Amino acid sequence: VQLVESGGGLVQAGGSLNVSCVAFDDGSMVYDMGWYRQSPGKGREAVAISGWDGERIIYLDSVKGRFTISRDFTKKTVHLQMNSLKPEETATYYCYANESPSAWGQGIKVPVAS
Predict the structure, then answer these.
(1) Cα gap 106→17, rounded to integer Å
(2) Rounded CA gap, 108 and 74, in Å?
(3) C-alpha to C-alpha distances, 69 to 40, 49, 64, 78, nearest whole angstrom
């Protein structure tokens, strides 16, 4: 599967941003998908994961109540709505598909200005 992300860009602290990821594959998107992020000098961390059925969802504790992950199976797209963004959440955000083999998007930069 090939993943293509879109929607990154500069946002002010407290602002919102929606990032999207389109999965190009021949199947029915029956695998977990999610978003990870990596800040400068830090490791990659899982932000939000959606199970293959779109029902089982896990969020990083620090984003609960502010971020929402959703899937559109018709368009093979997964979205991440991010609200009340903080400067420390400046990172490159990566789309992930738990396919076999697993797949990663190219990453999109989300700078959050203070």
Answers:
(1) 18
(2) 23
(3) 23, 7, 11, 7
State the Cα–Cα distance between residues 60 and 89, nearest whole angstrom.
12
Confidence label for 99 from pLDDT (cuts 50, 70 and 90): confident
Spatial distance between the Cα atoms of 40 and 54, rounded to a whole number of angstroms: 30
Residue 28 has pLDDT above 80, yes or no: no
Rounded to an integer, the average pLDDT of 20-48 is: 91
- For the chain, give the mean pLDDT: 94
Among all chains, which residue has been given the structure tokens 């620090």?
62
CA 77 to each of CA 62, 83, 84, 88, 89: distance values in angstroms, whole numbers, following the listed order: 24, 19, 23, 27, 23
